[in-house]
Amino acid sequence: MTAPDVTTSVPTSMRLLAGLEDAARLDLDDHVRVHGAVDDAVGAGRVDLLDLAEAVRLRGRGGAAFPFARKARAVRDTRGHRLVVGNGSEGEPASRKDAWLMTYAPHLVLDGIELTAAAIGAREARLVVGSPHAAESLVDALDERAGRRLTRRRVRTTVVAVAERFISGESSATVRASEGAPALPVFSLTRTSAGGVNGRPTMVSNVETLAQLALLARLGVGGYAAVGTADEPGTTLLTVHRDGRPAVTEVALGTPLGAVLDRSEVGPGLLVGGYHGSWVPAARFDEVTLSVRGLEAVGAGLGAGLLVPLPPGSCPLAEAAPVVRLMAEESAGQCGPCVHGLAAIADRVEALAASRTSPEQMALLERYRRLVPGRGACGHPDGVVRFVGSLLAAFPTEVTMHQHRGCGRRGRGLLPLSVEP
Amino acid sequence: VKRRERLVVDWTRCDAHGLCHELLPERVQLDDWGYPVVTAGELPQRLRPHAQHAVTACPQLALRLVRVADR
Q1: Strand partners, B37
Q2: I need a surface site. Which of A203, A235, A378, A408 has the fewest CB within 10 A?
Q3: Predicted confidence (pLDDT) at residue A222 exceeds the cutoff of 70
């Protein structure tokens, strides 16, 4: 692995995770000591934070990688009582980064909420949170801030605890949860920016994105863009799995994969992004850089920042099949093509993994993969189809072997199937 | 006035009754489970009356005609 410029960018990239070396929660005093104050010009509103966000091309870190400034301006340009919703409902069984951030650095998220509210003219915010530890930490953090102001904006912020399941992290589901309704996706012809929580213009943003904004308001464009690539400045949080255990880390965007994982840890390949993400075969290891664009080049995406390497001797089909079944079961059950289509796909992937498939079953799998996408209230069916499609594309040798006698390797349950609190 | 419209299904409402296919087979096929597969793109003007009929006939009110620019 030749990456001479990497070693320097790794240590300096700990920005969201600064001060968290021994995993102790940063209370308000710690937070101010580690991160300092928000830049005066931004705090006083003389500099438009959305201009800064546009200058550093800040993209959402919840999965869709949507440009933050564009979404925020769409909300700002509406009339009505605007609202900010912080999405802290990770839903991804293998992902920990958002829960970690909210639990250990809650004030970065709350700074981001206040700054966003100020930028779009909102006075109210909801934080939709899955992890009970994270919810507790945020509620404590709100108490610590009572009577003290870090930013100029006074924002009424409430923490909404939701029972975490895969689809609860979907944007319209967090809006529903903010209304006190079950966290399920909704069909709507109106964008959330125009009509979200109770019909109000709503800025929904992932909690890491909000924390990135809190950094940006302190570092300014130059400081923020001191790490990362020209196209994608800054850092990103990752959940990296090793030996079945997740670890949260932060890297400069554009960091080569080899700086995070050792080539020898990767057997057949790795899962990138999340359970709506993509598989990358080991042969492409050296090509992978960790940014939206870098991952696009290998047919993947940053998604929710998940990296799960499959160790040598493991079978990708046997590891992935239970995830596909879980995703089928995690359907909210609202949309027919998702309910029936994902179950039918899971049946065929399981049969393939168990080497009990046939040419007819493989043809059906092909047919269902074409039939399901774009036919649901949310992106869940499309995400699962992407996961399955990239699995089949990344491991053609294994797929062929499994259509005959199989590869002789059993699943070891390397991909977690439940969200641990 | 020519309206540019397309058909949209509210998947959370659709229960696979299949009337949309009966009334508008030119634009709506059914999948393996009886749910509609709507031809993508703008609805041709000549089919508008049939489409309108399909929209009103849907027992779940799951089928919508929306302006192309709407989404």
Answers
A1: B29
A2: A408
A3: yes
Chain B closest-CA separation from residue A113 CA (Å): 28
* pLDDT tens profile A265-279: 999 999 999 999 999
> In Å, how far are A58, A75, A193, A203, A296 from A78, measured between CA atoms?
22, 6, 8, 11, 33
Confidence of residue A194 (pLDDT cuts 50, 70, 90): confident
Answer whether A187 sits within 8 Å of B13, measured CB to CB: yes
pLDDT digits (tens, 9 = 90+) for A9-27: 334 579 999 999 877 999 9
Measured between alpha carbons, how far is B71 from B64 in angstroms, rounded to an integer?
A: 12
Would you state the structure tokens that stand for residue A170, as one six-digit string? Answer: 């979907």
Report which of A291, A99, A128, A100 is spatially closest to residue A203, judged by C-alpha positions: A128
- Of the two residues A19 and A199, the one the predictor is more confident about is A19
For residue A304, the model assigns a pLDDT of 92
Contact A278, A16 (CB under 8 A): no
Cα separation, A262 vs A133, whole angstroms: 32
In angstroms, rounded to a whole number, what is the distance separating the alpha carbons of residues A421 and B15? 35
Q: Name which of A335, A368, A371 is nearest B11 (Cβ-Cβ).
A: A335
Mark out chain B residues that contact chain A at CB-CB < 8 A: 8-16, 31-35, 37, 64, 66, 70-71
CA dihedral A160, A207, A135, A161 (to 10 degrees): 30
Q: What is the ipTM of this complex?
A: 0.92
Interface test with A, best of B6, B7, B8, B12 (most A CBs within 10 A): B12
| Interatomic CA distance for residues A51 and A31, integer angstroms | 25
Tokens standing for residue A46:
């003389």
Give the DSSP letter string of A298-367. Answer: TT---TT-EEEEEPTT--HHHHHHHHHHHHHHTS-S--HHHHHHHHHHHHHHHHHHTT---HHHHHHHHH
Phi, psi dihedral angles at A55 (to 5 degrees): -60, -35
- Distance separating alpha carbons of residues A197 and A184, to the nearest angstrom: 13
pTM: 0.91
DSSP alpha helix (H) spans, A146-263: 171-178, 207-224
Please report the residues numbered 170 through 229 in chain A whose beta carbons come closer than 8 angstroms to any beta carbon of chain B: 185-187, 189
What one-character-per-residue DSSP string does A238-257 give?
A: EEEEETTEEEEEEEETTEEG
Helices (H), A56-206: 68-76, 97-104, 106-120, 132-145, 171-178
| A344 interfaces chain B, CB cutoff of 8 Å | yes
